[in-house]
Amino acid sequence: TPRELQEHFDRTIEREQRIEPRDWMPDGYRKTLIRQIAQHAHSEIIGMQPEGKWITRAPSLRRKAILLAKVQDEAGHGLYLYSAAETLGADRGELTEMLLDGRQKYSSIFNYPTLSYADVGVIGWLVDGAAICNQVPLCRSSYGPYARAMIRICKEESFHQRQGYELLLTMMRGTPEQREAVQDAVNRWWWPSLMMFGPPDSESRHTARSMAWKIKRHTNDELRQRFVDMTVPQAEALGVTLPDPELRWNPERGHYDFGEPDWDEFRRVIAGDGPCNAERIAVRRAAHEEGAWVREAAVSYAAKQAERAGR
Ligand code: FAQ
């Protein structure tokens, strides 16, 4: 009966066991997961653009090989995540349509421009750093296919974070111009990185529900604090200043205090009005349209194979 199904689901969540695709789940649980996993997948694919732009302009063969590998990993992450969404009954083609016509979101962070090669390092350090902070707890998410995809993604994100930090260490040992480029990139990416964790808890419409379902394991503000605490010592080691005059250690709390991100800017960017929103979607749309023949060929090949097997 429906009541027994619901009880079985609740017990599974309560015992920290995983919900699998074949299990009964409430409609809201399925919808929330599709929304979050699709947004995450879209972010990985759109997130290839800001760094991808620098592949042809990498300063050395070594940097180019590293960047190529990183951007390819992001494509891979997008694919695991679309596959995880498909286990919930979502259709990948439809999810892409929803991204292109603005019915589904992708992370605000990818709507900012990359102005120099230092941005590649800062994206690795701060953006991948924030992504790891947010995603490590998702390895314990209650939905099996999502949690398992997250394990592999987090391992690769750690490599991305280290490559960013290593690039920045190299630039900080370089010329004054290189050090300035790093500081300038840090100034531009710091606040948008804090916004990756989502709105403040008081304005987050999904957190309470998603935590009760153990899809999310921490609130947006908890993870934002964890990221700040982790990053300040790294900034000191690197020799850069984080652009927040309110940033200071609070011995009573045992955490760093920090300033309030500009939430109006955040709302504008997720509403489609950030510096690069139009460009990101235009590039994604063009890639989708130019790839139509590949999808058609694959479908027609699969149909021929099936016909042959049937004979
Ligand atoms: N940008 O109620 P909440 C990466 C939306 S890392 C845009 O708090 P929730 C790696 C939210 O969807 C980036 N929209 O929502 C990489 C909701 O809108 P809706 C991707 C945002 O879901 C690195 C509304 O605001 N990571 O790609 C943002 O409980 C370098 C209300 O918010 C993930 O997606 C935002 N920053 O918590 C790749 C991680 N924040 O749907 C390439 C998985 C919130 O009601 C290069 N996702 N919104 O219209 C999550 O952990 C959660 O979904 C949160 C938001 C924490 C992002």
TrEMBL record:
Q: Which SUPFAM superfamilies match?
A: Ferritin-like
Gene Ontology BP annotations: phenylacetate catabolic process
InterPro entries in the cross-refs: Aromatic_CoA_ox/epox, Ferritin-like, Ferritin-like_SF, PaaA, PaaA_PaaC
Q: Which GO terms describe its molecular function?
A: phenylacetyl-CoA 1,2-epoxidase activity
- Which Gene3D superfamilies does UniProt cross-reference here? 1.20.1260.10
This protein's GO cellular component annotations are: cytosol
Q: Where is the signal peptide?
A: none
Q: What Pfam families does the annotation carry?
A: PaaA_PaaC (PF05138)
Can you say what this protein is called?
A: Ring-1,2-phenylacetyl-CoA epoxidase subunit PaaA
Q: Which organism is it from?
A: Thermostaphylospora chromogena
Lineage of the species this protein comes from: Bacteria, Bacillati, Actinomycetota, Actinomycetes, Streptosporangiales
